[in-house]
Write a structure and sequence with these properties.
heterodimer, A: MetI-like fold, B: mainly alpha, 13 helices, 0% strand
Chain lengths: 292, 312
């Protein structure tokens, strides 16, 4: 990059921050509507998880006798299930289970994966070889089978299925982080930082990590959507949270028995999953190449 | 060249051995095995001595290392042990269930290829129009749909609403239509993404411009020059696609109540039948490794640019 490029880049945000209405318009012009929508969807679902009471007054676990299998209406936005429970309320209250499951899974993958990746990429040598062969082995087993092996080992449950999904994300994070660390490590300014007497840990923290961050963040968003899909699949198969819990995958599994009479029981929770996953993928894409 | 082939085969065997060891550590080294879980059930009314005898029969009472050596030896002779739940050899169960899954998976894969090719060529032909953005966003949508939900929705729409595919007593082929479609959609997405990207990239190469300048029609350029080069890189994700097919089979067979390797796996997890799950894990790892090995070895022959030159 030449110094002209740097000057040029600096000048753009400076003019955009000017308090004229034209400039303000310019700030928003670069933002795509689909990206705004994606953030709105995630924010809404997050609010559902944090304060479900704000969105629905119905009890998600106790049904109303006589109110079973009602089609969507003004009173029940998404209808009711076989026990007379409001489906919208169950989806809203279930978001906390699905989202924390997916977040925990991504957390496990991120923590274990980036640790392996940074270790392999920065230490190098036989440790690098060993860790990367281990990652190859993990990748050679189809992800669902890795999840199922861990489920059979740990037993069923929300937390266990999150760990099971997280374990399948480790390999991807490890590979990405390693390649990023190796890439950044070879660049001139890192060489210079080492040359001017920076200790290994300090250079890693100040130069290598921040420069590897963008692609890791993009990959994290992508993995979040993917983990949500996997968590709902395990929930659907009955390996996740036990039945009264309104986890999204489980909601679809329960609605399956009423396909002919109550289509909304399977359609609505599935659509929510699709929309949230799409949003996560869209946001991941906006972070740059690594997300695609 | 021979050295490369041997090194690559050795690497594949090593990965496979490590996968076996990993699955052994995960699945057999755990306390409380499937034999105990099944036979400690008071309904059987077995004495502790009888249980010890059964455990000896299943060879789960020895030291960990003895168990490891025994199951590695058995594996090499194609013996995966007994399914505790069904009481039959796992290899027999696999053999019984394999044809159904193979049919489902190959039909699903073929459909996915057709779907992906269709999307890619539509996107290529609609270059510069709004339709193109729409087509290019379809794969992203396909990846975001939970497979099990897709299956349920297809049953809902085609069987219950439109009554096109019968749910009760369908013919052998009718019963496969919806499962094959369910399986094909998630597989077609990564295929279509790679194809679209490659088509776009190769369109800009100079040999394409030359072909155009010589007066070749749009269709001829696309099929004779561009498509040939765009298809090859798809091979590099063949192993990943296999994993997706298998995962898809587990979900699809469960949703549609079909018998096969997928539903066998699902039942194995529900009943904690470790031997069955371990066999599925090892066999699929073996297939994955074999696919990648074949792709690696065949690639230089398919793409002449990568052929190792004599003396090089």
């Amino acid at each position: 990059m030449t110094s002209f490029d740097i000057l040029d880049r600096r000048s753009v945000p400076a003019s955009a921050a000017a308090p004229s209405s034209v400039a303000r318009f310019r700030v928003w012009r670069g933002v795509s509507p689909s990206l705004v929508l994606a953030w709105l969807v995630l924010a809404t679902v997050l609010l559902w998880a944090m304060a479900p009471g704000l969105f629905t007054a119905y009890n998600p676990v106790e049904g109303v006798p006589g109110g079973q299998l009602k089609a969507p209406s003004a009173a029940h936005l998404l209808g009711t299930d076989s026990l007379g429970r409001d489906l919208f309320s169950r989806i809203v209250h279930g978001s906390v289970h699905s989202l924390t499951g997916a977040l925990a899974a991504v957390g496990v993958g991120l923590l274990a994966g980036t640790t392996i990746g940074i270790l392999a990429g920065s230490v190098g040598g036989w440790i690098d070889d060993l860790l990367m062969r281990l990652v190859d082995v993990l990748l050679s087993i189809p992800t669902l089978l890795v999840s199922l092996s861990i489920i059979i080992l740990l037993g069923f449950g929300t937390f266990n299925s999150a760990i099971a999904v997280g374990a399948t994300a480790i390999a991807g994070f490890a590979r990405l982080t390693r390649s990023e660390v190796v890439r950044v490590r070879r660049s001139d300014y890192v060489e210079a930082a080492f040359g001017s007497g920076g200790s290994f840990v300090k250079v890693l923290w100040r130069h290598i990590l921040p420069n590897s961050l963008t692609s890791v963040v993009a990959f994290t968003a992508l993995q979040f959507g993917w983990a949500l899909l996997q968590i709902s699949t395990l929930g659907f198969l009955g390996y996740g949270a036990p039945p009264p819990t309104p986890e999204w995958g489980l909601l679809i599994a329960e609605g399956r028995n009423y396909l002919a009479t109550a289509w909304w029981l399977t359609a609505a929770p599935g659509l929510i999953v699709v929309i949230v996953v799409l949003s996560a993928n869209r946001i991941s894409q906006s972070f740059g190449r690594a997300g695609s | 060249m021979l050295k490369f082939v041997l090194a690559r085969i050795g690497q594949a065997v090593l990965v496979l051995w490590a996968a076996f060891t990993l699955s052994f550590v995960l699945l057999q080294a755990m306390p409380g095995d499937a034999v105990l879980i099944k036979f400690l059930n008071p309904e059987y009314g077995l004495s502790p001595e009888q249980i010890a005898e059964i455990r000896a029969d299943y060879a789960v009472d020895g030291s960990l290392f003895a168990q490891y050596a025994a199951s590695l030896g058995n594996l090499l002779t194609g013996d995966f042990g007994y399914s505790v739940q069904a009481g039959v050899p796992v290899s027999a169960q696999l053999a019984v269930n394999l044809p159904a899954t193979l049919t489902l998976a190959s039909l699903g894969f073929a459909t996915a290829v057709i779907l992906a090719a269709l999307l890619a060529f539509l996107s290529s032909f609609s270059a510069g129009s709004r339709l193109r953005d729409l087509i290019q966003s379809i794969p992203a949508l396909f990846i975001s749909i939970p497979v099990f939900w897709l299956g349920i929705m297809l049953i809902q729409i085609f069987s219950f609403r439109l009554k096109l595919v019968p749910v009760i007593h369908p013919g052998p082929w009718e019963s496969l239509i919806l499962p094959v479609l369910t399986l094909a959609v998630p597989i077609s997405a990564p295929l279509a993404q790679i194809l679209i990207r490659n088509l776009d990239e190769i369109e800009t190469r100079s040999f394409v411009s030359v072909a155009r300048a010589k007066g070749a029609s749009r269709g001829r350029v696309l099929f004779r020059h561009v498509a040939r080069n765009a298809v090859l890189p798809v091979l590099t994700i063949a192993g990943v696609l296999f994993g997706e097919l298998l995962a898809g089979a587990v979900v699809t067979e469960t949703v549609f109540g079909l018998s096969g390797i997928g539903s066998l796996t699902e039942r194995a997890v529900s009943h904690q039948d470790l031997a069955v799950l371990q066999a599925v894990v090892i066999v699929s790892a073996a297939i994955f490794v074999a696919i990648n090995l074949i792709v690696d070895l065949a690639y230089p022959f398919l793409d002449p640019r990568l052929k190792p030159r004599a003396g090089a």
